[in-house]
Specification:
about 160 residues; 7-stranded mixed β-barrel; single chain; 11 strands; globular; mainly beta
Length: about 160
């Protein structure tokens, strides 16, 4: 997909390169490339080991020093399609969260949600898009009055390697 614009806005969404994720948190653009774990910037999917109580695929994207995106997809065999989680998905409170510029938010209260759309899964590489509405933390607890105020929009990932 190609997006063309005459705007000089440096916060506009770009075409996602292979092995990368990009998304906006409350309108601020974040891009994480899969450079390497040693370079403190990475993107990957990992299938949790078979035989665990809740088989799932875990997405992890980190760009030091203060940005992280993580989410889990409950599945023993990931398939193309939509996966939606909300605050009733208790196990996903621990898996689905974002750290941006040092501020943490999670899938926590009623109304929070995460939608992941897998558009391609072939030869161990996964592509798709996502959106979320999370609740921010003040570092020690979550403020009910701020529920759902961390908005993750225009999330895309392309050809992310899956580790089995």
């Amino acid at each position: 997909m190609l997006i063309v614009s005459c705007s000089k806005d440096t916060n506009s969404l770009k075409d996602v390169p292979d092995g990368a994720v990009q998304y906006k948190v409350n309108g601020n653009l974040f891009i994480i490339q899969d450079s390497s774990m040693s370079n403190v910037e990475h993107v990957m999917f990992a299938k949790q080991m078979q035989g665990t109580a809740f088989p799932r695929y875990i997405f992890s994207g980190r760009k030091e020093p203060y940005n992280f995106l993580g989410f889990g997809i409950e599945s023993d065999s990931l398939a193309i399609g939509n996966y939606t989680y909300d605050s009733t998905s208790y196990l996903y409170r621990q898996t689905n969260w974002v750290l941006y510029n040092g501020s943490q938010s999670m899938l926590y209260y009623a109304g929070d949600n995460l939608t992941i759309n897998i558009t391609s899964y072939s030869n161990g590489f996964i592509s798709g898009d996502f959106t979320a509405k999370f609740t921010p933390s003040n570092g020690t607890r979550f403020d009910y009055s701020k529920r759902g105020t961390t908005l993750i929009t225009e999330g895309k990932f392309k050809n992310i390697k899956c580790i089995y």
